[in-house]
Amino acid sequence: MYLVTGATGFVGSAVTRQLLARGENVRVLSRAGSDQTNIRDLHVEVVEGDLLKPETLRSAVEGCDGVFHVAADYRLWTRNPETMFRTNVDGSRAIVRAALSAGVGRIVYTSSVAVLGNVPGGVADEDTPVTYADMIGPYKQSKFRADEAVRQLIEEKGAPVVIVNPSTPIGPRDVKPTPTGRVIVEAASGKMPAYVDTGLNVAHVDDVAAGHLLALDKGSIGESYILGGDDMPLADILAVVARHTSSRPPFVKLPHSAIMPIAHLAEMWTSITGGDEPFVTVDGVRMARKKMFFSSAKAERELGYSHRSADQALGDAVTWFNDNGYLR
Fold first, then answer.
1. Distances in Å between the alpha carbon of 129 and those of 117, 125, 191, 227, 228?
2. Which residue in 27, 105, 209, 258 could disulfide with 14, CB within 3.0 to 4.6 Å?
3. Contact present, 227 and 299 (Cβ < 8 Å)
């Protein structure tokens, strides 16, 4: 039996499907009232619980051979950073402690490339130097602290944790959608007339999920593994999306300084109206000043990880968004 947290989300649901595909019994942790669209058609055991209520985690981890802690609060803007920190830091600490107490033999913790260093004009890996001061915004900061909390449990308590760092997952079942998924939706809908000079490492979500299982089977305790794909400038990503929608990509490249005032206004408006996360955020613009390019060589070498092309990942994402009514 394997427990998956975050199974109702984008990456978590993909991990759940990979486990089921190889014949494993799967239990998923779900908060009361969570949208279960992504697991509705799956044969899984659903256990109601909350990462911020440690007493609800005991029954979830009981009898499990392994735990995949995929759940996280992933947003580039939040009204309440403290809540994001509690979910990502305290929640991660709580589930690892619960699994450790239950004698779970293996834990795969889903971190992010967001906590890794950056190489200006180059490609970063798991060993690129980084500090907390390099973290931009509550999401990156909270995930960095969560990594510290998990590593402390590995070192002090012997928690059997393998860490994976997905890059930018793209593909089907991005129901929320994620911040990157929103970019694809806007671009595919013809609502993105301009772009900034940035870049991302694009990976198919199903490859990232497969990497989680490889980490379970072959990863070394305490080690981190980047699960990525192809490095692509944003202009190229938008060009691929345009080709899959038979449309024209945006051709106006704006300087970051021109977008920043718009981001401030968007955040202000969202705060006033009580709306969801604004499409353009101040932290997002600050992050965009750096190209987030990464190497998966370690995971390829030690785990046997592989990935399909970014073109296929983006194409599958566009198809899914179109088939599910996101593109209007």
1. 5, 9, 38, 18, 19
2. 209
3. yes
Closest C-alpha among 25, 48, 67 to residue 215: 67
Q: What is the DSSP secondary structure assignment for residue 166, as one 8-state letter? A: E
Strand pairing category for 168-170 and 194-195: unpaired
Q: To 5 degrees, how large is the angle CA 124–CA 112–CA 302?
A: 65
Q: How far apart are CA 270 and CA 36, in angstroms?
A: 27
Q: Residue 152: which residues within 8 A CB-CB, separation 6 or more?
A: none
Please name the amino acid found at residue 33. G
Which residues lie across from 4 on neighbouring strands?
28, 68
Q: Residue 287 to residues 131, 137, 242, 281: CA-CA distances in angstroms?
A: 15, 9, 24, 10
Cα–Cα distance for residue pair 189/327, rounded to 1 Å? 5
Amino acid at 149: A
Q: Is the dihedral of CA 237, 258, 113, 18 positive or negative?
A: negative
The helix (run of H) or strand (run of E) holding residue 97 is helix 91-101
Q: Describe the crossing of helices 137-157 and 91-101 by its angle, rounded to 10 degrees.
A: 20
Residue 120, preceding peptide bond in cis (omega within 30° of 0): no
pLDDT score recorded for residue 282: 76
- Model pLDDT for residues 246-265, shown as the tens digit of each residue: 988 888 888 878 778 877 88
Cα(291)–Cα(74) distance, rounded to whole angstroms? 19
CA angle 73, 78, 83 (to 5 degrees): 55
| Number of residues that this document lists for the chain | 328
Query: Does pTM top 0.85 for this prediction?
Result: yes
Q: How far apart are the first and last CA of the chain?
A: 41
CB 256 within 8 A of CB 266: no
Whether residue 296 contacts residue 228, with contact meaning beta carbons closer than 8 Å, is answered with: yes
Beta pairing class for 224-227 and 161-166: parallel
CATH 2.70.170.10 fits 2-175+202-230+294-308, yes or no: no
pLDDT per residue as tens digits for the range 103-128: 999 999 999 999 999 998 899 999 99
